[in-house]
Amino acid sequence: MNLPLTIIGGFLGAGKTTLLRNLLTQADGRRIAVLVNDFGELNIDASLIAQNGGDTLELSNGCVCCSIGDDLNAALIQLEARAKDFDHVVIEASGVSDPWKIAQIGLINAGYRLDGVVVVIDASRAESHLSNPRYQDTLLRQCRRADLLLLNKIDLAGDINLDELRRKLLTDNTKAHVMTCIQGRLAIDLLLGSWRQQSASSIDAWGQSFKTDTHLPWQSLSFLSDRLWTKASFSQFLKHLPQDLLRGKALINLQSATRDEVVSGSRSSGSDGATHWLEWHRVSGRDTLTEHVTASPVKQSVLVLIGLNLDQSVDAQLIEREFN
Amino acid sequence: MTTTIYVARRVITMNPRQPDAAAIAVRDGRILGVGSVEDLQQWGASTIDDQFKDKVIMPGLIEGHCHLKEGGMWAWTYLGWFDRRDPSGHVWPGLKSMQAVVDRLAQVDAEMTARGCGDEQPLLAWGFDPIYFGGERMTVDHLKAAAVARPIVITHANGHLMNINSAMLKLADITSATDIEGVVKDEHGNPTGELQEPTAMHLVIRKVGNAGLLSPMDDQGMLNFSAIACMQGVTTATDLVNDYSDGSYDMLSRATSREDYRVRLFPAFRAFHGAAAAKQSTERVLSLQQKNTDKLRFGIVKMMLDGSIQGFSARMRWPGYFNGAPNGIWVMDPQQFESDFEIYHRAGLLVHTHTNADEASEVAIEAIERILTRSPRPDHRHTLQHGQMIDAAMFRKMAALGLCANLFSNHVWYWGDQHYEMTMGPDRANRIDDARAALDCGVPLAIHSDAPVTPLGPLFTAWCAVNRLTPKGRVLGANHRISVPEALYAITMGAAWTLKADHEIGSIEVGKRADFAVLEDDPLTIDPLKLKDVRVWGTVLGGKVFQAGK
Fold it and tell me: Model pTM?
């Protein structure tokens, strides 16, 4: 099974390292492997370090930092061999590299599955980078294939016009999501998608957490469903969701593929009692659907949507109707 | 305490106060005297060695920018367009057509089968460069005639591209459904076997391991390098990107501590992507410096700002690439470059910076000017490497700052036509690798091959700087040529200066190391157009005589 892969790009000083430190220290049960150029700069609290192996730093919360060295391919191959130890892999792209070049590793079924490309921007310096011919093309190249543009340091950006900045940065990119933040503080769930140790015992609480988690006016909507789903019908349903959704997550009980069970309307249980279920994530506009054959973590299918001004962009009645 | 007096047809000393001599006296691996036999005999008991009496002796040649991989490629099949000599002295003829490439692969496949290598063992090849085939690209169809069952992996000369055959496509699971940049496809959407990006190449590497340029160095490669150096009259060479790891140190130390190792090595610490923080790296460099020997010298720091010009990844100033290609990439952030450079500089280290195109050179020069203003340091000898598009104004500034240039003169021959027609256009191609301007502006000059990118051979490199000829017969900027004596100085004393070793090597003077290139022909009297054909008999390193190929 391919490991979810997130690439974090952005210029020197944009806040990538701070963002990564936040990720690692607030992993909240996720076992994240972070590949960085220099983990000395991460400045991880010594009390969190379980083992320092020179090129790797094992943290007591199950996360690991690995140094990329001079060969990212080699580092990825090594990590692939330890795939079962991790839920998610995050690569920090160097300040001037194009994160999309690395991200494509996640599109070739070579041990990794692309979860998202995040580009961190220092909002207080972006305008000066855009007007400097030595930096402009590099910055625009980074933004070209971003799934999520994170405008960091907005507290230092004075009265810049964020819409204008967003327009300039995303000239060649119509699908990127944009979020603002301070000191790289962003809920981990907005940054990373699926993870394999999904407990989801309280998926609704997960949605609620966004109301207290941040300085921004998040809204979350939850829906429950007793309907019998197939992967196809759920994919069809997804078309009803608005494009500017920041994050979505669902655990869907699937009906059996066999005719008998469809007719009888029974839940799809194999002889071993396992259930077929589907896990859905939308992170930064990118959908991931994964089928599981284990005991389902939820009885009813559940859907949570998170975004800004959801009440304006989401027709809750339509979704309620279609989901149920 | 034995003294040997070598008698020669001519000794070219590179010491302008005594340019010529008849003989050299050597004691304890060092030069005891230079002059007439009678003068030298006044040092007391000595042996006259006249094995070089018909040969020309000059200082051992110094390659200031190459990589040990020059010796590490020969376990794989060479597919280059130019002739290339392997460590045994065998010259592999350049392959001038796609058919010739396929024929050589077919032959190697048959040899592998005859040796009992099963079809699962891949055939790895290197040095291929389709830029010389007038736009024709290699595809899996070409390679059908080379091998059917055996996977073939061909690394291009620049190390950034690959071609593979159908068997390898299958092994790597690359199909029409593989939808990423860098997997080249034909008009029907099927992969052609050309892979253009690290991500695409990753699919191959994870199946067959690092191949060609990407593979790690080994002990045999170290010995091969020594053999190649001797054949080219080289007694000192850099390894301009080295990780300074314990493993690399052990390998370098094992090789250079051999009595029969034929070359002094100056590895340079890789201080760009993937390197640890500059402060810790400085400590590493300084600690390895403590282990320096006469044949193994640590202490140079290598930084890198941009990519390559023919790969369109170098950073170019206005008016940019001649064919309209977008500007290249920064390998290192200019700000990071400046702050890291300053740390190495303050630690007293010598920094060599890769800057191919002129925007990168300009960024380096401006950054170093600020650093030198903040923390002046006499005699730093920081060097710009490649510097292929540096113009006279930049050279004047470099002279004012005390910067040195090590120019990539081999480019004039290897890619000069492509620069003229595609990358730079006539004006800038005519002043590519402008050794003339460097010298006129007073910039200390070395010239290089960047082997294995082009073959090791300082006399060939000198020929390029002297004649500026291209394969299509152009003289690329006649006014930018330098003289033969100037070129010979660049491949001896010039390079020694950039390594801070000019007090030890680079000329034949009393007290210096007895490192000589022994030549069959006289480079100062031969037709300058034949400078590249000067025959090398072998070398003397620290007073030890090594015949090439023996």
Answer: 0.87
